[in-house]
Design brief:
5 helices, alpha+beta
Length: 176
C-alpha cells in the first residue's frame, strides 16, 4: 500500500499536518477519550476523518491524500513522509493522537507492522509505519520512512429478522 500511495502521491495535493499535541503515555487506551470525543467518533463525516488523519500524522511531513476511485467518499488513503524510518514509538504516538479524537484500537497493535482503529461502527483505519519501499525510493528523494493510513466507511448490511423487518449486520471493513 505504501508503494502505491507514494507512486501516486505526486498526483494528490499535499496537506500540512495540523496540531502539535503531546502524545499520551504508551499503553493509554481510548477509555481516556472524552465523552464528547467518543460521541463524535460514532458519527464522523469524511471531512472529519480526513481531519483526524491530518491530526494523527502531526510531526510527519507532506501528507498526501488519495481518494479511492472504486469507493469515492467511502475510502481515503494518505501517506506522510519522514526523513527517518519511523518505528513503534512513532506508531504509538499516531495511535494516541487518533484516540484523542475518539478512535479506539481494534485488536492488537503489532510491533513493526501496524494497527487497526475504529470510530463507532462506521469507520475503520489501518495505520502502519516503515521504510520507503525499494521501488519508490527514487521518487521519495531524501525521505526514508512513511506513515501509511487507510480509512474505510463501513455500511452495515441488513438481514431479515423473524418478523420480516431488517436488522443491521456488522461487516468487516474493506481495507486498502
Amino acid at each position: 500500500m505504501a508503494a502505491a500511495a507514494l507512486l501516486f502521491g505526486g498526483c494528490a495535493g499535499a496537506d500540512t499536518p495540523d496540531g502539535q499535541g503531546t502524545p499520551k503515555a504508551k499503553g493509554t487506551t481510548s477509555a481516556g477519550a472524552s465523552p464528547a470525543a467518543k460521541a463524535e467518533a460514532r458519527e464522523k463525516t469524511l471531512a472529519q476523518v480526513r481531519s483526524d488523519l491530518r491530526f494523527a500524522a502531526a510531526g510527519f511531513k507532506e501528507l498526501n491524500f488519495l481518494e479511492a476511485p472504486e469507493r469515492p467518499g467511502s475510502q481515503v488513503h494518505a501517506v506522510a513522509m519522514s526523513r527517518t524510518v519511523p518505528g513503534d514509538a512513532e506508531l504509538q504516538r499516531v495511535i494516541s493522537r487518533f484516540e484523542e479524537r475518539g478512535w479506539r484500537v481494534d485488536g492488537e497493535v503489532e510491533a513493526g507492522a501496524g494497527a487497526f482503529l475504529k470510530a463507532g461502527d462506521e469507520w475503520r483505519v489501518i495505520a502502519g509505519v516503515g521504510p520507503v519501499p525499494k521501488e519508490a525510493r527514487a521518487k521519495a528523494g531524501s525521505y526514508r520512512g512513511t506513515l501509511v493510513l487507510g480509512a474505510s466507511h463501513v455500511v452495515p448490511r441488513k438481514k431479515p429478522s423473524s418478523d420480516g423487518s431488517t436488522l443491521p449486520v456488522p461487516t468487516q471493513p474493506t481495507l486498502p
